[in-house]
């Protein structure tokens, strides 16, 4: 990719390009990557909005495909200079089986790596997750940690297990010779809880509040802080990392980077209220209204109901043993590694991120004040 930006036009592939994060990565590439000649958007479910992107100067190629199918991945990767691999099954609510989560998140990532090696694509940016680190099954807090903070990463849930193994595969592949004899250069970005336009869980919280007459009931102490990052800044970090990976291969290759910005440290529920409050909802209780043991019981009851009802209907509420444990464990990051390694600075301020998210929630739910 060494030619000047004006001369060579590059081919990028974004897997999961129609997802919550993927769509923002696609749009950010079109706005902020001047070397882009072709943008391939690979997803199991293609969004109708892709059509509007085909009228611009960059060739946008929509590819309906499945990352678990190696031949489909290889066909999509062939000829690409850069792959940004965001596709994944983001399920902590028991909607998919552990086997399916593993198949998509782990085998799908293996297929992307092997496709890069076989076809000669040299640059791979992987969307990992904070969950690769924690919170662990012991409920140990991770307070203002960074990429080098010691922490006992112990997982049992299929989602974090799959993300941890997939990240390991990507980092392990750094330096492998691809077709043509040059080395593969990989890095992994670890977003904390992403929020912003298109965040379905935020919409689920709004709907839950509506069902309860405009009230949400505090379940988690305000003192339990959870790191959050705006989707636009996560997308920008992906674009920048992909751009800098060639020039800074020795420094960035095989590295992990937490995704961060100026979003404030708050409990998951208090943070959500930054957006749901202006949409008319209220969070009841300065402290959790129910004792923790009762929440544990209700979460377990939800898990039992999900298991009993599975043959008939998918019952997947927000509260389950895993989401309660994660929500109830402090996990915040404080780092500048991405800034030091490839000059990342958040593109969107907290104020801008908040406003954009509020406007989206209002439009998505018809709750404009
Ligand atoms: N949402 C969050 O808070 C965080 C997400 N992440 C990671 O970011 C990435 C994107 O997550 P989101 O945008 O939130 O999820 P999402 O579910 O909105 O997007 C994932 C996309 O991948 C596609 N996909 C799923 N299985 C596929 C398959 N077999 N073949 C092809 N495409 C497939 C889906 O159709 C979807 O468009 C994931 O890898 C996730 O692990 C990491 C940290 C936080
Ligand atoms: C019902 C209440 C206990 C409520 O507070 C539960 C909130 C719960 C749904 C969320 C709390 C923390 C979230 C997770 C966190 O942001 C880390 C994540 C990283 C990812 O890679 C994917 C999403 C998630 C697991 C995210 C999912 C929703 C929460 C568990």
TrEMBL record:
InterPro entries: 3Beta_OHSteriod_DH/Estase, Lipid_A_modif_metabolic_enz, NAD(P)-bd_dom_sf
Domain of life: Eukaryota
E.C. designation(s): 1.1.1.181
GO function term, MF aspect, one: cholest-5-ene-3-beta,7-alpha-diol 3-beta-dehydrogenase activity
GO terms under cellular component: endoplasmic reticulum membrane; lipid droplet
Catalysed reaction, written as an equation: 7alpha-hydroxycholesterol + NAD(+) = 7alpha-hydroxycholest-4-en-3-one + NADH + H(+); 7alpha,25-dihydroxycholesterol + NAD(+) = 7alpha,25-dihydroxy-4-cholesten-3-one + NADH + H(+); (24S)-7alpha-dihydroxycholesterol + NAD(+) = (24S)-7alpha,24-dihydroxycholest-4-en-3-one + NADH + H(+); (25R)-cholest-5-en-3beta,7alpha,26-triol + NAD(+) = (25R)-7alpha,26-dihydroxycholest-4-en-3-one + NADH + H(+)
Predominant location: endoplasmic reticulum
Any GO BP annotation: B cell chemotaxis
Pfam name, any one: 3Beta_HSD
Transmembrane regions: 289-309
Residues annotated as domain 3-beta hydroxysteroid dehydrogenase/isomerase: 13-283
Subcellular location(s) per record: Endoplasmic reticulum membrane
Lipid bilayer topology: Multi-pass membrane protein
Keywords: Endoplasmic reticulum, Lipid metabolism, Membrane, NAD, Oxidoreductase, Steroidogenesis, Transmembrane, Transmembrane helix
Pathway annotation from the record: Lipid metabolism; steroid biosynthesis; Steroid biosynthesis
CDD domains: 3b-HSD_HSDB1_like_SDR_e
Its biological purpose: The 3-beta-HSD enzymatic system plays a crucial role in the biosynthesis of all classes of hormonal steroids. HSD VII is active against four 7-alpha-hydroxylated sterols. Does not metabolize several different C(19/21) steroids as substrates. Involved in bile acid synthesis. Plays a key role in cell positioning and movement in lymphoid tissues by mediating degradation of 7-alpha,25-dihydroxycholesterol (7-alpha,25-OHC): 7-alpha,25-OHC acts as a ligand for the G protein-coupled receptor GPR183/EBI2, a chemotactic receptor for a number of lymphoid cells.
Similarity remark: Belongs to the 3-beta-HSD family.
The protein's name: 3 beta-hydroxysteroid dehydrogenase type 7
């Amino acid at each position: 990719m060494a030619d000047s930006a004006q001369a060579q036009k590059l081919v990028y592939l974004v897997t999961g390009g129609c997802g919550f994060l993927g769509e923002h990565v696609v749009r950010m590439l079109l706005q902020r990557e001047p070397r882009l000649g072709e943008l391939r958007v690979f997803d199991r479910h293609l969004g109708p909005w892709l059509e509007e992107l085909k009228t611009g100067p960059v060739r946008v190629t929509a590819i309906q495909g499945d990352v678990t199918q190696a031949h489909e991945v290889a066909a999509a990767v062939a000829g690409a200079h850069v792959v940004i691999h965001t596709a994944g099954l983001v399920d902590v609510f028991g909607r998919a089986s552990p086997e399916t989560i593993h198949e998509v998140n782990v085998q799908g990532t293996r297929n992307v790596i092997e496709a890069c090696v076989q076809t000669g694509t040299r640059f791979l940016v992987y969307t990992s997750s904070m969950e690769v680190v924690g919170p662990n099954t012991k409920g140990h807090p991770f307070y203002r940690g960074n990429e080098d903070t010691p922490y006992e990463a112990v997982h049992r849930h299929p989602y974090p297990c799959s993300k941890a193994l997939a990240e390991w595969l990507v980092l392990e592949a750094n330096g492998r010779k691809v077709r043509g004899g040059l080395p593969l250069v990989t890095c992994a970005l670890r977003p904390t809880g992403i929020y912003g336009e298109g965040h379905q869980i935020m919409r689920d919280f709004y709907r839950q509040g509506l069902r309860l007459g405009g009230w949400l009931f505090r379940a988690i102490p305000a003192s339990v802080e959870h790191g959050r990052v705006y989707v636009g800044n996560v997308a920008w970090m992906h674009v920048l990392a992909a751009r800098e990976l060639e020039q800074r291969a020795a420094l960035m290759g095989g590295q992990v980077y937490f995704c961060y910005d100026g979003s404030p440290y708050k409990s998951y529920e208090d943070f959500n209220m930054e957006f749901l409050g202006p949409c008319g909802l209220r969070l009841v209780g300065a402290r959790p209204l129910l004792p923790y043991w009762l929440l544990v019981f209700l979460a377990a009851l939800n898990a039992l109901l999900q298991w009993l009802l599975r043959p008939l209907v998918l019952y997947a509420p927000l509260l389950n043993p895993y989401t309660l444990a994660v929500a109830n464990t402090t996990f915040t990051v404080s780092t500048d590694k991405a800034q030091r390694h490839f000059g990342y600075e958040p593109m969107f301020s907290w104020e801008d991120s908040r406003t954009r998210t509020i406007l989206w929630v209002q439009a998505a739910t018809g709750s404009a004040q």
